[in-house]
From TrEMBL:
Organism: Phlebiopsis gigantea (strain 11061_1 CR5-6)
Superkingdom of the source species: Eukaryota
Protein name (record): Ubiquitin-like 1-activating enzyme E1A
Sequence similarity: Belongs to the ubiquitin-activating E1 family.
Locations listed in the record: Nucleus
Length: 344
């Protein structure tokens, strides 16, 4: 039977010689101090779908200290496509029970804890779980759920990531609070002098998802608006709004296209997007999402999950600027864009 003892933070560990040998390449890339931070990091991942599967693989291989996975669902036949931790014989089992041993096999140096009790998703039990973590990541959830989890993370000063896919579209959002990181000094050198080979400490101030969704696109030229590819962003926002209106359900048939189109148009107007650049979300994309949004496509999950893991590791290492703060991916073109929403 699953235990609901979520424990407390342990004493910081030092990287041993054997571990240093395992992570030698990463230590050369990030530095020993950054790898040490990863080694002592506890990451809480909520929901184990395709994006989370890919992200977990990468952060475990990178050498975090502890991974906590919380998912209340059973494995379904639909999970077998993008969820490579699952096998045919796992259908009907709890996802976390089926995946635990396979996650552990990726890197025996990482402690893996799994929970499937629904009581841990709310109230004091969930608050205690968040307090244990150094970073929280929730994937493939509705807008209201993401906002609620983000707010809890802010209450306890915990960095928060969200990620997910809707058919060919994917997204990543992050709220890293006030995030300090080291970046190369790219300031212009004095005349006649070479660029100094040094790094500087910078701070990025993030905002919660609830604030990011109120972002206004005023002042952007037609070219600037197109470069940010708001078509994908507002299609994702329209799907979230559709979920909110339909008790968390995703559109699953063509008849939802008219409502999705109306929602997207309303959101575009409210956000004051340059209508010369984007007069409307293309009808073709709306019709595609009206029938494909519920489905997970392995290549899209791989791209979004890989980028999600990469950014989590950046945040832990504090060696490069992470996403600021919303990334949208279009699987039909293979392109993506980062939009800075409501950040200073």
């Amino acid at each position: 039977m699953e235990s609901t003892d979520i424990g407390t933070k342990s004493v910081p560990l030092q990287i041993t010689e054997d571990e240093a040998a395992v992570y030698d390449r990463q230590i050369r890339l990030w530095g020993l101090e950054a790898q040490q931070r990863m080694r002592n990091a506890t990451i809480l991942v909520l929901r184990l779908k395709g994006v989370a599967t890919e992200a977990i693989k990468n952060i475990v291989l990178a050498g975090i200290g502890t991974l906590i996975v919380l998912d209340t669902d059973d494995v379904s036949s639909e999970d077998l496509g993008a969820g490579f931790f699952f096998r045919d014989e796992d259908v009907g089992k709890k996802k976390v029970d089926a995946a635990k041993a396979r996650i552990e096999s990726l890197n025996p140096l990482v402690a893996v804890e799994e929970f499937h009790d629904p009581a841990l998703l709310d109230g004091d039990a969930f608050n205690n779980l968040v307090q244990r973590a150094d970073l929280v990541c929730m994937t493939d959830w509705d807008r209201e759920g993401l906002i609620r989890i983000n707010d809890v993370c802010r209450q306890y000063s915990k960095p928060f990531y969200a990620g997910g896919t809707f058919g060919l579209l994917g997204y990543i959002f992050c709220d890293l609070l006030a995030h300090d990181y080291i970046s190369p000094d790219r300031s212009a050198p004095a005349p006649g002098k070479e660029v100094p080979a040094k790094s500087i400490k910078l701070t990025a101030t993030y905002c919660p998802l609830s604030n990011a969704l109120q972002h206004r696109w005023l002042g952007l030229t037609r070219k600037q608006t197109k470069e940010l590819n708001p078509t994908v962003i507002f299609t994702i926002f329209a799907i979230w709004e559709y979920q909110a209106r339909h008790n968390g359900k995703l559109p699953y048939e063509g008849s939802a296209a008219a409502e999705l189109e109306a929602v997207a148009s309303s959101l575009l107007g409210r956000a004051e997007v340059n209508r010369q650049a984007l007069p409307a979300v293309p009808r073709e994309l709306i019709e595609t999402m009206a029938t494909t949004a519920p489905y997970e496509l392995s290549p899209v999950c791989a791209v979004v999950g890989g980028m999600l893991a990469q950014d989590i590791l950046k945040a832990l290492a504090a060696r490069e600027p992470p996403i600021a703060n919303f990334f949208a991916f279009d699987g039909s073109t293979g392109g993506g864009a980062v939009c800075r929403m409501s950040m200073p």
